[in-house]
Amino acid sequence: MSSPQSVKCSGVVLKQAVLCLCLLWAFVSLRPVVADANTDIRAGDVLLVPLNCYVCNAIEQETGTPYSHSVVVANNTSNPTERYVYEAWGEVKKTPLTEILKRKQKNQNLYQLRAKEFLALSATRENELRQRFDESFLGLPFDDEYLWNNLDATGHDKLYCSEFVIKFLNSFLRTPVRPQPMSFDQNREFWVTYYQQFGLQVPEGEMGGSPSTLFFSPLFIHLGEIN
What we know:
This protein is an alpha+beta fold. It is built from seven helices and eleven strands. The termini are far apart. Residues 1-33 have low confidence and may be disordered.
């Protein structure tokens, strides 16, 4: 028969073991989920991309995330080499996901979001996305001035990456993603010089979008990182 002291010691050890297991579970559950590029990626998903350039780093510092680019998944396929995305990069275009993975910053991963309104599978969504993209967005020029609702000399929309993603998705969503006031406080001298080349003042407080607009929006669920 065990003595009261040994029973008490056993109880303490058991409590400590349970506590350790709980802490281990909490640590594991808080780690970001990292999947490979052939995981559950659907047409309409948003991928946030970390890039390595001076403007990219400035954007990431201003917006509080490690992401400076965003794209929309274009098609459904189980073969990652056949997966494409829609993006504003040089112009609004369709790009292989493999190119995005090569372009991203080394040792960092993409981040996958899915609009809550897109949670239900839709057999027609890929075609709807393609038709809207081809008719209304394909070939539009990139906006180096990062201004919402900016037009070129011919009256066509100029779109930067997150502006394109937001406006493209908003053409499908019942509840739209709202642009947010932009801040340029973290790298003020850089942005003053940057906008001087366009003859513009820094658009402090003007409405706009960034990867952080998507990342922090309550309209999306977070599916984790993709390498």
